[in-house]
Fold this protein.
Amino acid sequence: MRDELNSLKIDVLARIEKAGSTEDLEKIRIDVFGKKGELTGILRGMGKLSNEEKPVIGKLANEVKEDLEEALTSKTENIKKDLLNKKIASESLDVTANLEEASIGHRHPLYQTIEDLELMFRELGFDVVDGPEIETVENNFKYLNFSKDHPSIGPSDTFYIDDDHLLRTHTSPVQVRYMMNNKPPIKMVSAGRTFRVDEIDATHSPMFHQIECLVVDEGITMANLIDTLNTFVRSFFGDDIKTRFRPHNFPFTEPSAEVDISCLECHGKGCSTCDYTGWDMELLGCGMVHPNVLEYCGIDSKKYSGFAFGMGIDRITMVKYGLDDIRLIYDNDARFLEQF
Amino acid sequence: MLLPVNWIKKYVDVDISTRDLADALTLSGSHVESIKDMSRGLDRIVLGKVLEITKHPDAEKLVVCKIDVGKEVLQIVTGAPNIKKEAGVIVALEGSQMADGTLIEASSLRGVESRGMCCSYQELGISESLIPKAYRDGIVLLNTDLEPGTPICEVLGFDDEVLELEITPNRPDCLSVLGMARETSAATSKTLSYPEFELGNIDNEVAIEGKIETDKCSNLVLAAITGVEIKESPLWIQSLLIKAGIRPINNIVDITNFVMLEFGQPLHAYDLDKLEGNELIVREALDGEDLVSLDGETRKLVQGDIVIADKSGIIGLAGVMGGFDTEVTEKTTRVLIESASFDKTQIRKTSDRLNLRSEASSRFSKYVSPSLNLPAAKRALYLAREIGVGNPSSTIKISKREDRPAESIRLSYSRVNDLLGTSIGEKDMVGYLERLGFEVEEKSDYCLVDTPGFRSDIAIEEDLIEEIGRLYGFHNIKPQPIKTDLVKGRVSKEKSNEYRIKNDLFALGYSEVLTYSFVSPSLNKRAGLDGEQINNFIKLLNPLGEEYSVMRTSILPNLIEILSRNIKNKCQDLRVFELGNVFIKGQSLEGVEKRRLSLASYGDVDFYSFKADFLELMARAGIRDIIFKPCKDLGVFHQGRCAEMTIGTKLLGYMGELSYATREEFSINKRAYGLEADLDLINNLSKEDKVYQPIVKFPSIIRDISVVVDKDMTHDEIVTIIRKNDDEIIADIRLIDIYTGQQLAEDEKSYTYQIVYRSKNRTLVDEEVNEIQERIIRTLEEDNIYLRK
């Protein structure tokens, strides 16, 4: 019986080795371990053995059974592994190929700039508000202290709807609206469309965009204005960008200044872009709110002071994204839009 | 304004570099936009003296000259027709580079050696418009005592820089050398000296009279110069004029221009002998009068224009341009100089109406201080005598009204520092103001300030604070943070909703576009819009042209144009959107702006995917109850593929496939889709807060049914019928297929629905679902809708 077991083991191991599929292996399992299986048959003869032989043969039979089962399991796993590997090999793709395109919509760079600015000023505690594109002549000029004969009031500079209405030439009238409807302390910004009579070319557009900022409270100073603008410029353009305040003139501020920033090309070192001055063109106009403007808007100019600034958004968008023609902003060419 | 640095140095002892001077001026408010080095490229160009001129043996138009250039005598061949023996000429030596880039080398011209070039003003880089007539077609001839070989920038006075200044409109006083000298003196703390103009005793009495008959002229100063010989001005005057951007004409005109640049006071010179009588009258024109101006044009005048007249009639358009008949010519021997102040608004009006702009009109329309009239006239006479043009007469001054000195302004010292955020000392404040020509009377904690006549811009205390601030230097103000409560900036609900809508649109693959608020009225018509949208525009009174003449009533046409342009550029697939305003005409212009959302798309899109995008967008905004109704009468959309969208009783907008006509008009050769919705309504209805609904844990049972319906029947109608069996366990009815085709009759279509059954509190059993499903089928049959076989 010992011999029978040993030769069965050798025989079955050989058959397992030869088996080519999981089906073959399953057949072997049934042939060997099934009710009528070969091993089962041999084990049935155990009863005839002497008491001395029983434990010895029993042990051997168990060993043979375990060995064969293990061989079956491991062969099954190998075959499965081979099958999987073949499947994987047959499924390989050209990972260098691109067959599909996914797309997320593109943000318009000018609106991106506006949103960046709005978010930044919100974080600094400024309310973000909007104003209408069609304004009254009074809000756009008179309440901003423009003299009646100021050249920009004429139809060669300003688009008119009728005698009393125009397309706002700047976002400053939002200051007027806001001051008329809110009491100090006031901290607001407003960005939007503005219009001036300009033929379209590489640097001009009859419609363009500005952002306006206004702060009114007791004890607001020019030093506050400079600090606010420095903070804004550093966080928007970079920590190494410096400002230069040049005295200027606007009807609605006194004192007034224009602000230059370090050349963004060379960061102030001097290059051909900035004519080796280290300074870029003017970034924005600003100043302390003219007392006449405060008074027009019902704010006591003896008690309160304020500052304001206004900045063209098209130009900083152009600088930021390296655009060489303002028309790109308004052409909406997909080849342009998809770059952002 | 162009300001030669050497001219400034005549009146202020500038001892800093031009770059530093430019910075000082810029930081005190006179923005130096550029610095032009006049001597650039002139280092190998010298004064030469023509010793000999002989004919070129082989070229008729050329001559061969021997020219003394100091160190040697050069042989130079030239084609200049005006070359003269003994004349001073500008010689570019070998190795010099001309303004146009030409390099001068020894060469042979038709076999004759030439070692240099005689130069014209053009070749030195002087703009055509500044070159005196005599030298426009030839080389420059110089009348000078300087030695041959002297560097030309020394001869011409081109040994300095010219500052290009941006002068703000409130500072017309700075549009002059003297004005800028004053600013320079204040900015650099250097003493200002004035040009000499006192004439001393004059014994040349010329009978002239003047009369002012209009309030638009406050002051008139007249003077004469006799014994005049008209000729070229001395070189130093010509050079200064050229550097300042004015073309030299003749000695008299040059003097008037020179004084205008120096003082900012425009002068006019008449040929005194061409005047009828000896009286000059300033009056207003009458309708129908006219004048032939200096340039030979006949100018029609209207009531109100300020004119200068003599006995014969109008001889000049005051402050704008003189008359042709009394012009100074080569034959003139007696000159009348007029120096006056005219009303700036009227001068601007006249010069705008006639589209006639001169150096004089641009200055007068800003403001010329009457205090300049007399000194400027005297300065002209002084120069005339100094450079030997003629003999000055005494001046007469006629005043319409005395200039009342402006009231003193009270300046509180503490207010200065309160507004600037500085701690400037009182002495410094007073010092800054005095340096600028203000008269200051110091009191205890304030001072009284008198403004000089030329400062038309100073009216209130804040104006003085700016003066102090700019001389102290804005750059010297120490930045100080605003003292404020900690708050986060607020934004309206509408605005934050629009931020979110944009983000969702990007996620859906739509790109943002930006189009003009004004459009061509024909654009809407071409797009197929009608009714109010093409008949009721808000129009601009002064548009840039038809293309931008009305405010848009819809954004969609702009987007259709974008589709059109991009399809031309071979863009295969495009989804765009714009959030913006449209302008709907109403009773008044207040509140005419309405917010709109517009989408457009072509390429990988169909009606249902386009609609699904919008539904998803709205669902994210918490808006789920939009009713879509077929809409056949909008020209912009395909009649069978357009829906009117409503929410409750409110119109939300329209969407659909663009009509064949619209696509043809815009050359869009693919199916394209558009939508425009009322963004105010969306903003109003959108819900920002989302509340969690517990997830139903019980499984759902799904049953499909396919029904055959009449072609005109809508999905909404079918669902309404199914919903009649409104059992709470019908969780969803999803349309998963629409079929038309061979297996159905022409006027039929088949819809396949997936009905999802689910209960919130128990597991459903097949029997109850079957029962409802049966009921649904019976209800459908009552409406003659049968299952597809």
Remarks:
- Residues 53-90 of chain A form the longest helix (38 residues).
- The mean pLDDT of chain A is 92.
